[in-house]
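In the laboratory, one determines a bound structure by crystallizing the protein with its ligand and collecting diffraction data. In a computational setting the workflow is compressed into a single prediction: the sequence and the ligand go in, and a structural description comes out. We illustrate the idea with thiamine diphosphate.
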Amino acid sequence: MQKKFEINILFGGQAGDGIRQLGTLWAKLLAKRGLYVFLYDDYPSLIRGGHNFSIVRAANYPVETHKDQVDLIVALDLETINRHHHHLSEKGFILSEGKTSQGFSLPWSKTVKEAGVPRIMKNTVALGSLAKFCGISFEELSQVVKKLPQAEKNLEMAQKGYNLIPQTISLPSLPEEKRFLFYGNEAIALGAVAAGLKFYIAYPMTPASSILHYLAARRETFGVNVIHPENEIAAVLAALGSAYTGSPAMVGTSGGGFALMVEALSLSAQAEIPITFVECQRPGPSTGVPTYTMQGDLEFVLHAGHGEFPRVVLAPGDAFQAFYLTALALSLAWRYQIPTFILSDKHLSESLFCQNLPEKIPQISYKKWHKKDEYQRYSFEEDGISPLAFPGDKRAVVKATSYEHDPFGITTEEAEMIARMQAKRLKKENLLLQETEKLLETKGPERVPALVCWGSSKGAVQEVCKALGLRFIQPLVLRPFPKRALEKALAPASKVIVCETNATGQLAKLLKYHDLEVDEVILRYDGRPFTTDSLKKKVEPLI
Amino acid sequence: MSLEGKTPLSTYAPNTWCPGCGNFGLLSAVKQVLLHLKEDNKLHQVVLVSGIGCHAKIVDYLAVNSFYSIHGRVLPVAWGIKMANPSLIVIGHAGDGDAYGEGISHLIFAAKRNTDLTFLVHNNRVYGLTTGQFTPTSPKKFKGRSTPFGSPEEPLNPIEIMLASKATFVARSYVGRPKHLAYIIKEAIKHPGFAFIDVLQPCYTFFNTYNFYNQYVREIPPSHPRENLEAALELARRWDYGEKAQEIPIGIFYQIKRPTFEEEALIKKHPSFDLKAYVAQNHS
Ligand SMILES: Cc1ncc(C[n+]2csc(CCOP(=O)(O)OP(=O)(O)O)c2C)c(N)n1
Ligand code: SF4
Ligand SMILES: [Mg+2]
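The predicted complex, in structure-token form:
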């Protein structure tokens, strides 16, 4: 076995400097060497000016989170050094344009100016310097640079940057396995496409917008219509209209946009129309902190909507899970004719993961009508699931409705019918639970303290568990609540510590509500995700 | 048990509109049009979408595909249906509270997009189902239950709004002229694009306007140049939905052709997508 290797690099600059692109190219370069990579992106809610940075962690073993401490800073402006030098490890280096005792001072701006190319290409020059510094061949570097728009100019700039600096360190490489690079939102989008999505309808809102952008740019390839309507209310209702005709639809937004969709969530439940919501959380309340992260909407999504009805809430923690669970969310929505949710957040949605895709991908399927007797949209069935027919079918009259109704979909106020229909819809929850309860990740020894987490906290929590020999537990489904599975998983643990990035411990409260014991809660609510080093420090005194 | 009621296209649902309600006239005009579609073997392609209010009950009374949606949201639902299956004939039924209050943003955007729908506003100029409050088209000083001392607001003129919002078919009709109404609905369905009809529909119980309309309603003469926006605006301004009128024109104010949203925006037929190849190409 190779010795453990990792390298953490912070790329910083002003908004508009192309920092994220620089980080992403670096991540691609190392992924091509067979290394595992993870990219964390930190940027303020503005277009120009302001400080941006990305941290790319690369290792010869799987990494799904970043660290605060870095080995190298690539600073496209001086502020980057001022802000981050204290995160640099003792033997770390700085590549920048300013004077530095700890690295190299490199004339990137001058290079760009002399070549008369757009200022943004400074990031390519810097990438060239970094590659050479790390002993990456120009051949390898050009593999990723030549895929950029204006490839020739970018290659020229990369070469110039490459020539500015001597090789100083070297990186290992691994035999290339089948692994891919996905931002969380790309994995969500692709999972939906793979399951059979036909309409994605969304109003822009960070950190969900990149799903909209990714799908819109590739709609012909994917065979998915991508629509940006007047507001979130229109988005969700158009999605329901689409699904009523048999055409699967998904909507995506953040907390504020989802608040506007809540009335239609109840409609989907009453009308039993399949729909999948993607809620990418950011710190609230209200506009909050648009480009930062928080797991603050769990209780909102679990309980949103008037009336009582079954729903599925899935919380992926990395790109693999995001892909799989989004496909599953669509599949469950259609098989049970219910609303389903993907609960993401800025940290999952906008971080880059290096992972594989699942072998088996859940597909949209549904109970079809057999065209025997007269069609009843809401016929009573053993499992509560009425067969689907769609308008345009010569033999069926398909009546969907927001009112309580009889089996034909005609409004009712009869006591007996009301009670039967309420029970019909709720019946699905038991079946659902049987299917979703197994969605639980556990790792590590049993009779030790357990760290329990959900969603994007997975990466950091998992790594801390590994480092400290603790049990790792991550429920992927939060409703229907997997009580028995969690009970079993938690029982041997010597202590239960819940870790989440919100201010009140929403998962911890949920566990307690279901009579599961929680000993300690570790919270972070400054808009930043857990990092392995900071979380480890918080866990150590508790075990 | 069967959905069908005693008369053609009806259901077993008991009708609960007040005697004298203008919705009866509207229902029979719609039925007449639907019967024609049935003769043409197109009834199964029809989808009615309603909001919430007295008007909306119409979908319970017709044995036709329907989506009984929520207050104010007829248009986004109808739009979703049409986008997902453009071969369907989608007809929206909304109240004036629905269309001009709760959901007015959708109305403006449906017109702007020229999505291929027919949209009928059952305009009784009052909230019927919630028992008589003022709406965006109630006249100023209207004494409703939320404005017992008279509405302080000027009414909107929805015809003007639709003309300003780039609707390609803008009409008004009156339930007291059933033949006219049926004709306008047929023309609206034929129109490729967003076809808007403001239907004057007296609420017998909370705002009885029959006499007023009978006195002032005038059919727009065939000589009116339908493609002329200025002429349409001039006609639209002859009545401001106020308490008084000299003449209330009914008919087609404006009609032009413009590509529909569905023609412009939807992807051409769905390709087969190879996930593995795509990911290998684009994500490594
Ligand atoms: C979101 C929401 N707000 C309020 C209501 C209550 N409500 C039901 S019908 C209605 C008004 C109906 O007026 P209109 O749309 O003009 O229809 P009409 O009854 O006059 O046909 C209202 C306010 C509701 N159902 N939903
Ligand atoms: S309240 Fe008015 S609109 Fe409603 S049914 Fe009665 S008469 Fe018709
Ligand atoms: Mg009304």
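The first strand of chain B starts at residue 46 and ends at 50. Keep in mind that any predicted model is a hypothesis to be tested, not a measurement.
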